Amino acid sequence: MTNGQVWPKPALQHIYDEYLTFEPENFNFNNTGYSCDVLQDAFKRYNSMLFLKATNTFKQNTSLSTDSIIGKMEVLNVQLTNPCENYPSLNMEEKYEIKINNSSGLLVATSIWGILRGLETFSQLVYLETDGSTFVIRRTTIVDYPKFRHRGFLLDTSRHYFPIESITKTLDAMSYSKMNVFHWHMVDDQSFPYQSSNFPNLSEKGAFGKSAIYTKDDVRRVIEHAKLRGIRVIPEFDTPGHTLSWGLGGIPGLLTECSDSDTNQFGPIDPTVEKNYNFIRTLLSEVSELFQDNYLHLGGDEVDSSCWTTNKKIQHFMDRNNMKNVLELKDYYFANIFNITRSLETVPIVWEEIFDENIHLDPKAVVHVWKDYYDHSIVSKVMKSGHPVLFSSCWYVNYIKYGTDWPKFYRCDPTSEAGDNPLFLGGEACMWGEFVDETNLLPLTWPRTSAVAEVLWSHTLNETDAKYRIEEHVCRMRRRGIPAEPANGPSYCHY
């Protein structure tokens, strides 16, 4: 296990064999630039995290030689050179520089988001000596910035409901690995926990129960918690499939009746009913107003169109409009949906199937690649078509196996396909919720998702080096209240 090594690995770092010690009660952050609530909140947060240790009785002697100790670290000067932005964005500037010198340090960044990343790095440079007596930091210089702009984590809150505290803990853990997008897959076939003010019956009848609902205040709490950590929140309302729970909400004609003889069997949203587009417009307008991000995930995956082929009314509609197959009907559906997102001035994200099926995409649409674990060539195909890409194919962290499995996520690096093409935005680790709830979310997610975070942030990857640093990162997360699983087998966190 390492001591004071940073996760994810910084772009450039020079380390000296000289150390400074801390007297925690005498250390402080000194703001020398612009300030705002986000910065002041970060100072409080990191002050509370810097000097955490167990309640064991420790020896009182440092194991460092006195020759290598060059002084006491008393202050970190923090210089934000531009006013704070209101909300993180795809193109937010996250670069920062750190210099740790004789008795003080300097953190400089041009944006508040870079300051947040730098504070996280500084907090990781501070460590407790193995004898448990002294907090120290090595003299070092760092220039750091991410490889990709979008470093996300998807959480599915439909198959199981997650209390808000589970979500905010997840956001905390994301910030410890410099992840910057929370993809909230909020609703699906199994439940509709989002409480809509325009259509309250969607959650009233579609959620698992009255205590398994996300109110608008809940959503605002998540968004604010995320913003304070430089994390965007992008909601997903997946249609036209994955919508069985929507059908419980009393929207007439929303779902497709699969046959005239069995009116209790339903398929995807009926694309031939004009009122359905009015409903979707109103719902997505409400969602876009609540969530502050410019991006909205529309789903579009795994549409079982068999009910479209057995419904006589839909078949008549297709005949009247000279549609040869259900893919043309799906194209018609998404043409209407993209008209809605354009009117809302939101950028749509869709799952890979929409691209694979040659559905006419909105020019700005982002394609989220997920299907083929081994074949990353779809990334190049999407970029050649002019569409931005998100990548998740081999980062489904809900799939588990016995033993050390973070390396399989670490070895999956799409950089060779992405090159330096700006259309490659980044990617996401995905936690689907069939067998995950608040009891096992955090241990299953971490440190496995930390491996994805390093692939998306760091410019040089070294699995051998990472093996030792991830051990330290696990202990760090545990100290901060994240019950991360063991990374590499037998180990022990000495603080």
Overall pLDDT: 94
Strand content: 15-25%
Instruction: Assign the structural class, choosing from mainly alpha, mainly beta, alpha/beta, alpha+beta, or little secondary structure.
Output: alpha/beta
Distance between the termini: 13 Å
Range of helix content? 25-40%
Q: Mind telling me the C-alpha Rg?
A: 25 Å
Q: Give a quick account of the main beta sheet: strands, pairing sense, barrel closure.
A: 8 strands, mixed
What does the overall shape look like?
Answer: elongated
Taking pLDDT < 50 over at least 5 consecutive residues as the criterion, the unreliable ranges are 55-61
Please tally the β strands and state the result: 18
Number of alpha- plus pi-helical segments: 16
InterPro entries: Beta_hexosaminidase_sua/sub (IPR025705), GH (IPR017853), Glyco_hydro_20_cat (IPR015883), Hex-like_dom2 (IPR029018), HEX_eukaryotic_N (IPR029019)
Catalytic activity: Hydrolysis of terminal non-reducing N-acetyl-D-hexosamine residues in N-acetyl-beta-D-hexosaminides
Domain Beta-hexosaminidase eukaryotic type N-terminal: 6-125
EC number: 3.2.1.52
